[in-house]
Amino acid sequence: MMKKTLFFATLVLLAAMGTLRAETKETNSETQMTTAMADTSRSKINLFSGSWTTSSTPALKVDENYYSNWSATGVSQIAFIGTFNGNYKYTHSKFIWDNVADLALGVYWQDLIEKSDENPKLFETRRKNDDKIDLTSTYSQKLKNAWNVNATVNLKTQFMEGFTYASPTDSGSLVSSFMAPGYLTTAIGFECKKDFWNASFSFLTGKTTFLLDEDVVEAGQLYGVDTTNGKRVYAGLGSYAKFYFKKDIAKNLNFYTRIELFYDYRKPSYHDKIGLGDFGSWEDASFLKETGSKSAMERTLNCLRYDTDVDLEFKLEYRFANFLAAYFTSRFKYDSDYNGKKDFFMEKNSHLQFYQGAGVQVYFNWKTPKAK
Fold first, then answer.
1. Higher pLDDT, 133 or 25
2. Closest CA to 176 of 231, 209, 222, 115
3. Residues near 304 by Cβ (< 8 Å), separated by ≥ 6?
4. Which CATH architecture best describes the domain 53-368?
5. Which residue in 55, 61, 213, 368 has the fewest CB atoms around it within 10 Å?
6. Is the pTM of the predicted complex or chain greater than 0.70?
7. What is the torsional sign of CA 160, 163, 168, 170?
8. Percent of the chain with pLDDT over 70
9. CA distance 300 to 316
10. In sequence order, which residues have a C-beta less than 8 Å from that of residue 252 and are 6 or more positions away?
């Protein structure tokens, strides 16, 4: 009887221990699941734990001059120039998402045609004096110290039709319009980012040229695009480098500069294909034939020299008050796909482009968080 009782008690104890072990295992499983869900939730929360820093700066400049029977003479004109610079940055402990919008549009009216009974208008001729659409979005993953790996998308074009003029009263020749040309650049590379400057490099950069206005095509300004058989897009692939610097170099005086370089691996042979291979291209190499350069190194260096696009810009701004500043800006471009209508630096139909402007502008600035 005692043995049966002990045997039965042992069975009950073993069953209880099994039940307890199962409950413990289930509890541990539930705890692990809860922990995993919490980690996932925490991970999702961390993704949105960064902070936004935004800055929106619209500005307007208005100039007006009127001359009537003025002995020193002059040209009556009125000009409006509007600009917008927006920076919208999301900073996380692991990455940075930076978005920049740089826009400008300016027009002016001039009294270039002598007034008469048949032509009584005061400001007869309207022309454009500034036009820019430059949108950039960059995702940067932090590596070590100031170095990041990044992916960048950039779109450049203009709002309105652009003309070049042979004389003050010339009606002008069409050379550009919205998305003619338009440049979409995508790049994967590395950058070194500091407080006042950053430098980025990419050996895998796609630069697509759009020519979406038939009037520009008919005017003969093709920007290196092979337009045969109705083609209006050229997809390039190359290397890209950019340097950016912006800092107050004196009290109320800010200096900004930017330089971009792009070399298209496809451009030399592509230029040969469409009959533009006269700037040191790999196959035609007419420049090298003229200079007697025959070695592979000389050909390579001259291809880099004549087929590398350059975009250099700088600006000085002196701030009188929070809403008023004087500025001087200049921009230099070299693009072997653009054949200018005028000589520049004694080069016929030059590939060089130059812009310069100065003035006083009223602007507003909305920032978040608010500056202290």
1. 133
2. 222
3. 263
4. Beta Barrel (2.40)
5. 368
6. yes
7. negative
8. 69
9. 37
10. 318, 319, 320
